[in-house]
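Box 4.2: Ligand-aware structure prediction
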Amino acid sequence: MEDLVGLCKRRGFVFQNSELYNGNSGFYDFGPLGSELKSNIKSQFRSQFIHARSDVVSLDSSIISNPKVWESSGHVGGFSDPMSDCKESKKRFRSDQLFWGPVKDEKGDIVCWVCVHEDDTEIMKKEAKKMAKKIIKNEKINVEGRTTIDISTFKDLTFATESDIQNIPSPESLKPTLTMPKDFNLMFSTSVGASSTTPAYLRPETAQGIFVNFKNVMGSSRMKIPFGIAQIGKAFRNEITPRNFVFRSREFEQCEVEYFIPPGDCWKEYHKEWLDFSKNFLLSLGVRDDLMDWDVHSGDGLAHYARACTDVTFRFPFGESELMGIAARGDYDLKAHEEGSGKSLEYYDEETKERYIPHVIEPSLGVDRVFLAIMCSAYAEDEVSGEKRTFLKFKPSVAPVKASILPLLKNKPELVEVAQKLYDELKMRWNVDFDTSGAIGRRYRRADEIGTPFCITVDFDTIEKEGKTVTVRFRDSCEQIRMPIDEVMGFLGKEIDGY
Ligand code: GAP
């Protein structure tokens, strides 16, 4: 992860927001390459989820809505995470991410309690042992024989009672200085206009903008059920503990579809269809299959509005976590807005002559998380001519720079001129690079490190021999082929766009 974060900063993918002022926790800025990569993810979503389907249309709704939208959707009342403070260090924790349990001696008697951050079991075990050692030393506790810790019995802090909390040490102070968990609403509030008295909110998901426009879109674009409305846009959540780089941030982008279907059992089929469609989309972006998995939510793990939800998970360097979710939300949202607004959101099926509130399947992905999964999937190291090489194996369709055009020597105007002409043609269609500085091998390395799939070199054969060929070098294999310069556009078109 450290290597990846270092590369992201060094090569202009991601910067800490407000770095000049020592940062701004949970906010990130995407640099020249990062913004290109993000934009490619979004345009792939637009082309695969919207343009390639005749049953999905797009929407771009406002970030700030009438606050009643968020009351009806349940976000004002219930969009919260449990939070605990450490009274001594003033550190703030998400209570469901702290796990506590006893340390026992050889006789099975409790020696002390420990409390660690949620992580891989092995890391939690190691942290718990470290903490126990420190507490035993600090408190001068007499221990008989070896101590044991059974992480599998640990519970998260939301299960602690008032009396438990008197024993549970804060991971910061190592003393029982944690407060009881209390709900913290994750919506950022703001005020609209000069004399507003009620708060407005920055949207925490793009989905509600879709639900409240259901009738507008259906009426204006004459869509018939089943059909979907997709939206790409910013979402804001005042996360208690933003962490793991862009994985959990306070400002991020979502790509969501609300796919409206008839009530009844058919949702199972549609849900399965969207699971497969979503997974194929992630594969097409270059997210590694062997690092992805499914997490089927059930019982307590289901959000209050969902009748089913399956996450696609990804094995990030910091552990396996949710990449995107595909939820069957029933008719919860449209019903809630019908009640809240007092206006009918029923659909009239002209064929069956039935009226009903449509049900919904919702594929929802975070662009920033997919960005991170693509970076992790693409990161590679090998050895070329006895030297270590770091490169990014991006699919051409998502690569920030599609090709680097290189005149072999920068002091030969006849080479530079031909290369410049090729660059001028290609840049009208793609983000390509023109690089003249340094030896050709160094230029290849620079292109590899930012994941440019093709390097096209104009050399003396191009200008002196018949056929006017250039070399095309492939990033992953370093293999080179020659092709006529006027075939380059067609070749790149097939490799990048598939036509
Ligand atoms: N409309 C449903 C919804 O918003 P969610 O599971 O809360 O569901 C959907 O969010 C996706 O948005 C997640 O799978 C994740 O990819 C992304 N996401 C959620 N919170 C995020 C955060 N704090 N930072 C980055 N991405 C986030």
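In the box above, the bound molecule is glycyl-adenosine-5'-phosphate. The chain has a mean pLDDT of 95.
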